[in-house]
Design brief:
The complex is a heterodimer of chains A (476) and B (516). Chain A is built from 20 helices and 2 strands. Chain A has 476 residues and is mostly helical. With 516 residues, chain B is mostly helical. Chain B is globular. Classes of the chains: A mainly alpha (476), B mainly alpha (516).
């Protein structure tokens, strides 16, 4: 490792330093606002470093990490999402009271873990990144300790994440036994000759199971609704975006080497996962009255849509997945952001009944939530529309007719529950609803700022997506 | 450049109405009205200039193209020929009517109402003007959302259900069209190497008959749902009945026309071969729609629902005229689009005005209202006569031309379609009979049409009489565009025979592998 390597690795190093600084800061002077500012500063510096060292990439930093446009782009995305989560959490934790500062420590560590994940090129760094991310998340999920639900969600995530890590490790061991290497590149290049080997295939299958848990695709989705419901709203947004997005970015990079499109068994596995995720996610979302659970199922379905683009071959695959992920990040953060700013000390605003008449109490918040939900449903002028369009483009371009039709049908099913929330918000409530979301509570300024920025990004990507498309073309 | 203002003005007007509407409802109404009047003036000026310019077939009177998403071959391409000009004129005209008729009906969230109304108009204008298939789809979807809000917030009793049904039907069918658009994009790229969504470049794309057929079906479903064609019409009676008056006017007058416009502008010119094979089916569906809509209209006692079913019947004629694809049929279809927009729009406005006064749409409790509100009775009678196709009014010209055109294609089905006119006579007169004649069933205290409503009706009556007595300007306006489209479609039939024939021998005519 020489100085150029270190230089290219600067964004990640800064994140590591930021976590130490925040930890020391807390021990010296415990103050919520200061800790929050330090966290934001660390994230911004790391983001600036991404731009600063852009000339040093692409570069392999030790066998463990690769710093290239792809990993930098996704690191930027993760940093952005973490930045917004930190801002949203500030208002949320401020209302909550208690010891709030350590939350940011966990948040930075989670960002570091997921950045390491997208930059990893070796099983060891992959696993380290994943564990740093997961362990931070256990703490973040159970952080408020308001009641049994938080703890339950934390424990549930702990048990299932540990289990999936075990699957992953075992899979890696089997693949290593067969290929003799833990670096992704050589593993992928040997995959062709080993595709008949049961041990290798078993290893691959176990890795898919482990990743499937993290992505919460069917049939590995069971934990999602409970964890989404129990976790504090900003953390739910973080899990839905950063944790899933980082794992998907890794999947996209390394399973591209295995070429699922031209490998029938692998293709079939992913196609079945995609189709069942879309159906199960959307159909179960129809039954929910709790908005966090509904969004949990909806995110399962969205991962299914993403897998359609993932399975498509051709020039549009990487850009379609990346575009979709960016849109999904913005939309999901925005949706959970709305829930966050409407939540109060006693609990999160997650019952659909609380949203009745929101458009009369809080017209702007209702308008923003409407935009986010329309984006999830894929309505024009929102980022979600372009994203869905891009996925369909990739799917039709590879003649994946079956999956494309399933996607279309599921988009229609999805409308039912997105519109249900919208109808509730624009409904005139019978009598006055003193308990309705947003009644009496003040909206934290930081949260309002995040929502405004996110909705502008949403509209920008929906109306003029050209700059982003230019940026993500040829990432891989 | 001027074309983009037809999108921007309603968007800005709507946004402004929303912001001002929080202060004063009156301001919101005036801003909306003013922005539409500006558009109307623009349309009239353009029309006069167009009329003097004697355009050649297939040429574009106004054309503008901006780079939008060059990476995917998408551009912001708007253009106007005679056909889009007529449709735009109808859009703006009925837009003004909808704003004016809602003046007293809508009292809640007035600003947001006008935002939605004007956004729908912007979306519809976009549909009538786009020449890029992505842009077309963009506007096609865009107009649904505000319409959904219009129905689900300001609608009647069963509004949430109706709005949801409307949204799901149109969204799902729209997505099927999107798949077809993407398929066409890749087929075109496969044969020419150019990735583009531009309509003018996609015209005449050579493809195998199988591919052409399936791509055409995607478009057809989307347009058939909007038109609506009979098996996929079920959203229409609910949506029309539950929508507020302005919503019904826009739905019947404009939204249905986007389906017909899509058939004329996109489906047949892009897939002339496949469309030709669809002619018998389309004729049967058209006749079925005419008869089925008329028959169901009899069964209604909800006045608004009755008018909604007559729309299905009238739009059947449009389908016949379009698929006849000869000059008479097409001119008739365009004429029918205009006249149906005006006459059904007027009927919905009258039903809305009546409901605002007596708070019911149930014809069983009406009757004998002529004594109370003679002016409204006379106006309803006029539009009922228009709807049944009385000579001298626009609808007669339209249906007559459609039947002449379709007679050349299929005598038997055309004769069956004619019976639809008889049904139309019965249900139209029935409306007048049951609402205005007979015993007065309740002691209604109702006011007759006020000055605002009367003025609107006068405008509508004048335009319908004009279309009935002197339709030549409309024919002249539409003719170059329609001739151009017909020539383009015929030319592609000839042009495509060569490659299509070789494709058959070349084996795999499937879409697979494109874009890899």
């Amino acid at each position: 490792m020489n100085s150029a390597d270190l230089y290219a690795f600067l964004p990640f190093i800064i994140l590591g330093i930021a976590s130490v600084v925040v930890m020391l800061g807390i021990s010296v002077y415990r103050n919520h606002a200061v800790t929050n500012l330090l966290t934001l500063l660390g994230l911004v510096l790391s983001g600036l470093a991404l731009a600063l060292v852009a000339n040093w990439i692409p570069r392999q930093v030790t066998p463990l990490f690769i710093a290239d446009r792809y990993s930098f782009f996704y690191t930027g995305l993760i940093l952005g999402a973490t930045f917004f989560t930190a801002l949203l959490s500030y208002g949320y934790l401020e209302k909550l009271g208690g010891q709030r500062e350590e939350f940011y420590l966990l948040l930075i560590l989670a960002a570091l873990g997921s950045s390491a994940l997208v930059a990893s090129s070796h099983f060891a760094s992959f696993f380290l990144g994943l564990e740093v991310l997961s362990i931070s998340l256990y703490g973040m999920i159970a952080y408020p300790r308001r009641g049994a639900a938080d703890i339950e969600a934390g424990i549930k995530y702990l048990v299932l994440a540990a289990l999936s890590s075990a699957f992953l490790l075992f899979g890696m061991a089997l693949v290593y036994a067969k290929t003799g290497t833990m670096e992704f590149g050589p593993v992928a290049s040997k995959a062709g000759e080993l595709s008949g080997s049961p041990v290798f295939l078993a290893g691959l299958a176990l890795i898919i199971v482990g990743l499937g848990f993290k992505l919460a695709v069917v049939p590995f989705h069971m934990w999602t609704p409970d964890v989404y419901e129990g976790a504090p709203a900003p953390v739910t947004g973080f899990i839905a975006t950063v944790s899933k997005g980082a794992v998907f970015a890794l999947l996209l990079r390394y399973f591209s080497g295995l070429q699922p499109a031209s490998n029938p068994p692998l293709f079939l596995v992913f196609a079945v996962i995609a189709a069942s995720s879309m159906f199960v996610g959307n159909l179960l979302a129809l039954l929910q009255r709790n908005i966090k659970r509904m969004l949990a199922y909806s995110s399962i379905a969205h991962l299914g849509y993403l897998l359609v683009a993932f399975l498509a071959g051709g020039p549009f695959r990487v850009s379609a997945v990346t575009y979709y992920l960016v849109a999904y990040f913005i939309t999901t953060l925005g949706s959970f952001g709305v829930i966050t700013v409407l939540s109060s000390r006693s609990g999160d605003a997650d019952d659909i009944g609380l949203y009745e008449g929101l458009s009369l109490r809080r017209p702007w918040i209702a308008a923003i939530f409407t935009a986010m939900l329309f984006s999830l449903a894929g309505i024009p002028m929102t980022a979600g529309f372009m994203a869905k369009y891009y996925v369909l483009l990739a799917g039709v371009g590879s003649a994946l007719w079956f999956l494309v039709i399933i996607l279309v049908v599921n988009s229609a099913i999805g409308l039912f529950y997105y519109l249900r929330i919208i109808v509730a918000m624009y409904k005139k409530p019978e009598g006055d609803t003193p308990h309705g979301a947003g009644a009496g509570e003040t909206i934290p300024a930081s949260g309002g700022f995040v929502l405004a920025v996110l909705v502008l990004l949403l509209l920008w990507l929906g109306i003029y997506p050209s700059p982003l498309i230019e940026m993500i073309r040829g990432l891989l | 450049m001027i074309l983009v203002w037809f999108i921007i003005i309603p968007l800005l007007g709507g946004a402004l109405a929303w912001l001002l509407g929080r202060r004063s409802s009156g301001l919101a109404r005036w801003v909306s009205l003013l922005s539409l009047v500006v558009e109307q003036v623009m349309i009239i000026v353009i029309w006069l200039r167009y009329y003097q310019s004697s355009p050649s077939p297939g040429s574009w009177f106004l054309d503008m193209q901006w780079v939008w998403i060059p990476q995917l071959g998408i551009s912001f391409h708007l253009a106007m020929d005679g056909l889009s000009l007529l449709m735009m004129a109808l859009t703006v005209f009925l837009g003004i009517m909808s704003v004016a008729i809602s003046w007293t009906e809508i009292r809640e969230r007035v600003g947001f109402f006008h935002l939605n109304l004007l956004f729908i108009l912007a979306g519809i204008s976009g549909v009538f003007l786009s020449l890029d298939l992505f842009l077309f789809y963009f506007f096609w979807e865009l107009m649904l959302v505000p319409m959904y809000f219009l129905i689900s917030i300001w609608g009647h009793e069963n509004r949430v259900y109706a709005a949801l049904k409307f949204f799901i039907f149109t969204q799902l069918s729209g997505l099927l069209m999107l798949i077809s658009i993407l398929g066409l994009y890749f087929v075109h790229a496969h044969t020419t190497g150019v990735y583009t969504f531009d309509y003018l470049r996609l015209l005449g794309t050579s493809m195998s008959p199988v591919a052409s057929f399936w791509l055409m079906i995607g478009f057809f479903i989307a347009f058939a749902v909007k038109l609506p064609v009979v098996p996929v019409h079920t959203w229409l009676p609910d949506a029309h009945t539950e929508a507020p008056t302005a919503g019904s006017v826009v739905l019947a007058g404009l939204l249905l026309k986007t389906g017909a416009y899509g058939l004329i502008r996109f489906l047949i010119p892009l897939f002339p071969h496949a469309a030709h094979s669809l002619v018998p089916a389309a004729f049967i569906l058209g006749v079925a729609g005419i008869l089925y809509g008329a028959l169901l209209a009899f069964a209604q006692h909800d006045l608004k629902r009755l008018v909604a079913y007559t729309s299905i019947s009238h739009m059947g004629f449009v389908l016949l005229g379009i698929f006849a694809w000869n000059e008479l049929g097409l001119q008739g279809a365009v004429m029918q689009m205009l006249c149906h927009g005006i006459s059904t729009g007027a009927l919905f406005m009258l039903v809305g005005a009546l409901q605002e006064r007596i708070h019911t749409r149930d014809m069983n409790v009406m009757g004998g209202l002529w004594q109370k509100i003679p002016r409204m009775g006379a106006v309803v009678l006029f539009f009922a006569l228009a709807s049944l196709g009385l000579p001298g009014l626009g609808n007669f010209v339209a249906e007559f031309l459609v039947l002449l055109g379709s007679y050349k294609v299929n005598v038997a089905l055309t004769s069956m379609a004619v019976t639809g006119l008889i049904f139309a006579t019965i249900y139209s007169l029935w409306i007048v009979q049951r609402v205005f004649h007979g015993e007065l069933k309740k002691k209604w205290t109702v006011a007759d049409l006020n000055i605002r409503e009367t003025t609107l009706m006068v405008f509508l009556i004048i335009s319908l009489v004009w279309l009935g007595l002197y339709p030549q300007p409309v024919f002249d306006t539409a003719k170059p565009a329609l001739t151009g489209l017909r020539e383009a479609a015929v030319m592609t039939v000839q042009g495509a025979t060569g490659p299509a024939a070789t494709d058959k021998s070349g084996g795999n005519p499937d879409l697979k592998g494109d874009g890899r």
